[in-house]
Amino acid sequence: MKFTITGDSAIIMKGLSELQASYDFSLAERSEINITCVQEETLNGLAISYRQGNGTITYAYPNQFFRAFSMLLQHLQQEDTPLETNEKMQFSTVGPMFDLSRNMTMKLTTLKDFIRKLAMMGHNSIMLYMEDTYEVSDEPYFGYMRGRYTEVELRELDEYAALFGIELIPCIQTLAHLEEFLKWDAAYKYKDTRGALLLESEDTYDLLDRMIHAVTKPFRSKRIHIGMDEAEEVGRGRFLNIHGYQSRFEMMSKHLTRVLEITDKYELEAMMWSDMFLKLASETGDQYDKSTNLPEYIIQQLPENVQFMYWQYNQTDYDHYDNMIGQLKRFGRTPAFAGGMWVWNTFAPNYHISLSASEKALQACKDNGIRDVFVTLWGDDGYENNVYTSLYGLQYYAEHAFSEQVDELQVKQRATFITGIDADALLLLNKLDQPPGVADGNLQQTNPSKFLLWQDPLLGVFDKHIEGLDLDEYYKDLSKQIERKQKEAHEYGKYHFDVPKKLCTVLENKASLGVNLKQAYDKKQLSELTQLVDTKIVPLLSDVCELRSAHRRQWLTMNKPFGWEVIDIRYGGLLNRLETTKDRIERFVHGELDQIEELDQERLYYSPRFEQSTGLGWGSYYYRMASPNVFFHVLPIY
Fold first, then answer.
1. Which helix (H) or strand (E) holds 63?
2. pLDDT averaged over consecutive 10-residue blocks of the chain (638 residues)?
3. CA within 13 Å, CB half, 347
4. What does DSSP assign to residue 536?
5. d(Cα 422, Cα 482) in Å, to the nearest integer?
6. CB 128 within 8 A of CB 379
7. CB 4: neighbour CB atoms within 10 A?
8. Per residue in 259-278, is it b (16+ CB within 10 Å) or e — as a string?
């Protein structure tokens, strides 16, 4: 399909050219389809008028043009009929936040692929969350062996995003969440606790100056997110030894002032997470406490030259959002909002809670005049998931950004067209964490796709929760469903379903393995133990290898190699423990062992709060799944 583009098109032509290969169209000086571009900055939206080969796209900003063009292209690829439509943008800023710090640093080719898709959706911003994954002068250990981005790489990415009118915003940490840098001896002088910087230290503020200068230098945007979330431990390590006790509010308030002096120096517009001040105002210490009422001393003492960003990922109560936004508006300026697509700490997207929470949150944002909206894609505990599984959620946010009310069918149609992956196939992956035993909707964010894979077959940390559940059959059936979707997918989409399909094949044999071993052992059913070795453990040894190979291929296609070693080690541990399980059972069956002590142990609930009647509950992190024993010795916090 060929297009001739005329009119106010100078700012969009290079970006449009970049989209040709991905979306099966071409640009020509003469063609059967002629589109006139009209830029009207007062429009704050888009309008499309098309009839018999001639059309007009009216837009205010580039992201609106690319969204309009994608809507027209989608329409024409289905039928060449007249089209008249218009949309008003509900927010000034909308876009994802990519977590580039929890082991996964995406290749530039992957980020550019996302930029193209986001442009066609209508997004106009991307936050890059980089704790220590960028270069800082005179700090060789900052991001050492972590896949950090060079200034040249970040500048190249910014240049590419600019072709589509997408603003790249660096999101860093200037207080806590810096464990991966502070773990090095070379960083000791900056260190308060394992993850928090030492406040009231000129060395710290010299470092922060260099960090802020380095991370903003490659970008056009004057906005920077300075983090400062989840800093409960601040002032409780070396700071306490040096200065004695001080209130966290006083420390954070003074620190924020110092950091904003640096951002002012570089003429930057700062944003920060709001949770610590909400926690300090809450009687329970919970930033999600609906009854929180910000006291006047917090409102009066905090600087004005920062925008607070309210984050909330799992609340499905509209009134909660409405109240918390109202609290933050008392600072006299409009906060930003960050929702989430749950792709972290699991192999699967949790679309049920993500969409349920986001629907309420985004409606509250519209009703309260919130202008800046982001959707986070965190990567907690290794990022075993594939970030592309979030694409349906990214489309959902785009539709909210251009509509007062969102139509589910339209979201699916748009997502399928723009991503090249069937939206229902993306939603199907939600079932990886929805086996029997999980509470309806999985509002507790449990992650059986992860803990059933990594938990030890002899120790069975989660086995008490899954007794009596036919998980093997569930994952066998889900594997077939995913395989059907994979076969139906275009070549581009097939690749994204390989790991989920192979994971289901593994869980078909492993999910209930520990429960079955324990039952057969307790009853001294030696023939059953032998059968479990032959029909479950032996196939698992090869199936896990196939899963690991597919996962490695996926990771190294999308991401830099740094961080894969963490997942590789997990697979190695799983394979070794399966071999040990096989060896110990065989020796017991042959009479070489009098007992298998691990199987003698009583199985307890991982958490009494999450007994089977209330669902499997939150699944925690790898080091808690793989063993109840010591993975690493926790030293004092500093």
1. helix 62-78
2. 97 98 95 97 95 97 98 95 97 98 97 98 98 98 98 98 98 97 97 97 98 98 97 94 94 96 98 90 66 86 95 94 94 96 95 96 98 97 96 98 96 96 96 91 88 97 93 97 92 88 98 98 98 98 98 98 98 98 98 98 84 57 92 67
3. 30
4. I
5. 12
6. no
7. 16
8. bbebbeeeebebbbbbbbbb
- The verdict on pTM exceeding 0.85 is yes
Cα–Cα–Cα angle for 342, 512, 626, rounded to 5 degrees: 60
The C-alpha atoms of residue 537 and residue 105 are separated, in whole angstroms, by 34
How far apart, in whole angstroms, are the C-alpha atoms of residue 175 and residue 256?
9
- State the Cα–Cα distance between residues 594 and 174, nearest whole angstrom: 57
| CA–CA dist 306, 269 (Å, integer) | 7
Pairing assessment for the beta strands 45-51 and 336-340 based on DSSP bridges:
unpaired
**Dist. CA 463–CA 455, nearest whole Å:** 9
Is the CB of residue 110 less than 8 Å from the CB of residue 558? yes
What DSSP character marks residue 421? S
Sign for the CA dihedral angle at 29, 35, 40, 41 comes to negative
> Nearest CA to 589 among 539, 525, 534?
525
Q: At what angle do helices 108-121 and 151-162 cross, to 10 degrees?
A: 20
Alpha helices for 95-232 (secondary structure H): 108-121, 151-162, 179-182, 202-216
Per-residue model confidence (pLDDT) at position 637 = 63
**Beta-carbon contacts of residue 261 (< 8 Å; ≥ 6 apart):** none
Q: Which amino acid is at 434?
A: Q
What are phi and psi for residue 475, nearest 5 degrees?
-75, -25
DSSP code per residue over 73-85? HHHHHH----EEE
Q: How many helices (H) and strands (E) does the chain have?
A: 27, 14
Output the six-digit token pair for 136.
Answer: 């800082």
